[in-house]
Amino acid sequence: MKAIFGTTVLSLSALLSTTAFAQDNSITINSFGGAYETAHRACIITPFEEATGATVNVVTAYSADAFAQLRAQKDAPQFDVIHFSGGQEIVGAAEGLLAPIDPASLSNAADLYDFAGANMAKGEGPAYSIAAIGLVFNTEALSTPPTQWTDLLNPEFGEHLVLTDISNGYGMLGFLMLNQVQGGSLDNIQPGLDAVAKLLDAGAIVVSTSPEIQQEFAQNDAWIAPYASDYAFTLRQAGLPSGFTQGAEGTPASYITTNLVAGRDNTELSLKLIDMSISAEAQECFAEALRYSPTNAKAELSAEVAADVAYGEEGVAGLIRFDPAVIEANRTAWVEQWNKTIAR
Length: 344
Hints:
This protein has 344 residues and is of the alpha/beta class. It has 2 domains: 4-130 and 253-317, Periplasmic binding protein-like II (D-Maltodextrin-Binding Protein, domain 2), CATH 3.40.190; 132-252 and 322-342, D-Maltodextrin-Binding Protein, domain 2 (3-Layer(aba) Sandwich), CATH 3.40.190.10. 42% of the residues lie in helices and 16% in strands. The chain has 13 helices and 10 strands. α2 (34-52) packs antiparallel against α10 (280-290) and α5 crosses α6 (190-201). The radius of gyration is 20 Å and the shape is globular.
C-alpha cells in the first residue's frame, strides 16, 4: 500500500510553495469532527500547512451548522473555505454566499470527473470525495454478495435486514433509491414506503445511527443494510466480516464539496487549499483512511481499497445524486410519512 501521507506532502509542496502569500497567511475552514477530521488533517490540512507555511484554523461544524453560521455571518463571514456533504452549496451559491471558481485557477480541475466540478462557475465548489450508498453485507452469512437494490426484498433476508431512519442522511438516500427501484420518484415516495412496510412485516428493523448498525451486525445476526461504503470498512475495523457492493440499478451519492466563501480577502490561499483537496494524492489518502470515493480520475487505489468504493469510470458512472434542494424542501413531510409507516 502506498505511503500516501508522505507523497501528498512531497508532490504538492512544489506546486504550493511557488506563491508568496502576503498579509494574513491563514485561513479558516470547517471540518466534520471525529475520524473525518483526523483524516482531513492528515490528507489535506497538515500537508497544506507544511507546503505553504500558512495556518489553517479549523472549526468543527457539520454541514447544516456550518451553513447556518455562514448565513448568519453573511456580511462578515468567518470561513474562507467551507465544506458541505448535504448539498448546501447549491443554496449557498444561489444566495451569493459562495464565490464562483474559475476552473483555470485550479491545477487539478481538469482531472475531475465532469460531475464533480460541473457548477463551479455558479459558485458550487467541486466535490472532492463521495460517500457512495450501496449494500453493506455480512461476508460470512452471504457468501454470494447482493448485486441489486431489489435484493433487499429477498424473503430470505427477513429479520436479518437493517434499515436506517431517514432522519439520517445516508438513510434518506438509501430509502430514496429503494423508492426509485420500486417505481417511485422525488414526486412520489409512496412506493418506497409500501416496500418498507413489507420489509418490516418480514422482520426488518429500523435504526437511527451508525453505531446501531454495528451493534446489529455484531450482536443480532444482521446480514445486510443499505448504507455508505465507508461503513463496511468501519465494521471490518471492528472485527466484523463485511463487504460493500454497488446496486446494479445505481448508487446514490453524497457529494462532499469544498467551497470558496464570498467576500473574503484570502482568495488565492483558499483556492490553493481547494486545489489540494481535489488532487489525486489527497483523494487517495481519503479513500485509504475512510473509504470515500475519489472524484479525481487520476487517483489510483489498491485493489483492497477499490473494492470498498465507487472507483474508476465504471464505478462513478452509476452514481446518482438525488436533488438536495428537493430533499430539503420535502424533508419534514417525508419524515412524517416515514414515521407513520414504521409505527407498527
